[in-house]
Design a protein that fits this description.
- This protein is mainly α and 162 residues long.
- It has a domain of 70 residues.
- Helix content is 52%, strand content 7%.
- The chain contains 7 helices and 3 strands, in the order H-H-H-H-H-E-H-H-E-E.
- The protein has a 3-stranded antiparallel sheet with strand order 1-3-2.
């Protein structure tokens, strides 16, 4: 046998072995109207059906399901069970207003905790976060800001409530 015949035979043998190892045969996907009309169930699992693509009884059932889901998700619109939590900026403005003098962000964080206005939800650097939030407000609102930078790292309350 010549060398080329041997390599060709080896290729055929490896192709056959590889196809025999496959557990499932490969199939070509049928492209037709039926496949395009019906979305794959695994992709749409857990999603609400689009109401604009339904008709008649299916539309009524889908709208009933959506109403049931919205009732179980939370309370009615506008109703709040718990009061809104005070933000760090609002608490800092309150602390500075009560103090009447400029403070550093570390001192503001400590005072907020002592007065029970705000506590960090677990962040490592709440003072740095407060510092950047105050700077953001002063840059965005300009003269209408509640804070004014007095010295390096110190802020004073201007007296405008937002």
């Amino acid at each position: 046998m010549s060398k080329t015949k041997k390599t060709a035979t080896k290729r055929k043998a490896t192709k056959k072995a590889a196809s025999a190892k496959r557990a499932t045969p490969t199939r070509k996907r049928a492209k037709g109207k039926a496949e395009a009309a019906e979305p794959d169930a695994s992709k749409t699992a857990g999603k609400a059906p689009r109401l604009d693509r339904l008709d008649g009884e299916a539309l009524a059932e889908a709208s009933r399901q959506q109403r049931r889901q919205s009732k179980t998700k939370g309370s009615a619109k506008g109703a709040t069970d718990t009061p809104k939590r005070t933000s760090a900026l609002d608490a800092a403005a309150e602390v500075l207003r009560k103090a009447g003098e400029p403070m550093t962000c570390k001192a503001m964080i400590a005072a907020m905790g002592e007065q029970g206005l705000w506590t960090s939800p677990g962040g490592k650097t709440p003072a740095a976060t407060l510092y950047s939030a105050i700077l953001r407000e002063t840059q965005k609102k300009g003269a209408d800001s509640r804070f004014r930078k007095v010295e390096r790292g110190q802020f004073a309350f201007v007296g405008k409530e937002a």
